């Protein structure tokens, strides 16, 4: 008499476990990169939120305003704090520093910057540098950003 197989053999189960292991080995690093990118987006959002009000205050007074003067939110769930680095009177960078705990290890303590070279009319972010009147490169944002390019938004690379 022929017996009918009920269930899976050990080999079939081992193959399934191996496939799941391979998929997990690929998926977990990709997921970690996704988490880091989403955490950096908070820094992008916080620095972008102050651009307009800082530019307006500078246009009205010809003095670079502080973050407190424009009512900026300077910290968040993943951002420890923000500062303004003044390069010259009309050149400055708004720098957000990521927290060292509670964030992805690849961005812990890193900084993200958005910078202007003309009193807030034009802004750069991340590792992007622009030319200032075609003469010298303005690197306010790229000098102050330590977040790896792979975690930056595509517009800031």
From TrEMBL:
Example GO BP: cell adhesion
Keyword Lipoprotein annotated: no
Keywords per UniProt: Fimbrium, Membrane, Methylation, Transmembrane, Transmembrane helix
Residues spanning the membrane: 7-31
InterPro entries to which the protein is assigned, alphabetical: N_methyl_site, Pilin, Pilin-like
A GO cellular component entry from the record: pilus
A Pfam cross-reference name: N_methyl
Keyword Transmembrane helix applies: yes
Family: Belongs to the N-Me-Phe pilin family.
Name of the protein in its database record: Tfp pilus assembly protein, major pilin PilA
């Amino acid at each position: 008499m022929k017996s009918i197989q009920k269930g899976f053999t050990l080999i079939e189960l081992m193959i399934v476990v191996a496939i799941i292991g391979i998929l997990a080995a690929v998926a977990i690093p990709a997921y970690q990169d996704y988490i880091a990118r989403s955490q950096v987006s908070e820094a992008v959002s916080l620095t972008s939120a102050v651009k307009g009000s800082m530019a307006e205050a500078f246009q009205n007074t010809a003095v670079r305003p502080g973050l407190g003067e424009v009512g900026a939110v300077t910290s968040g769930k993943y951002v420890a704090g923000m500062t303004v680095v003044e390069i010259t009177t009309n050149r400055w960078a708004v720098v957000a520093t990521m927290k060292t705990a509670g964030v992805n290890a690849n961005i812990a303590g890193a900084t993200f910057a958005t910078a202007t070279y003309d009193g807030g009319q034009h802004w750069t972010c991340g590792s992007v540098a622009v030319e200032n009147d075609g003469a010298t490169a303005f690197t306010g944002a790229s000098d102050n950003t330590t977040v790896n390019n792979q975690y930056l938004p595509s517009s800031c690379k």
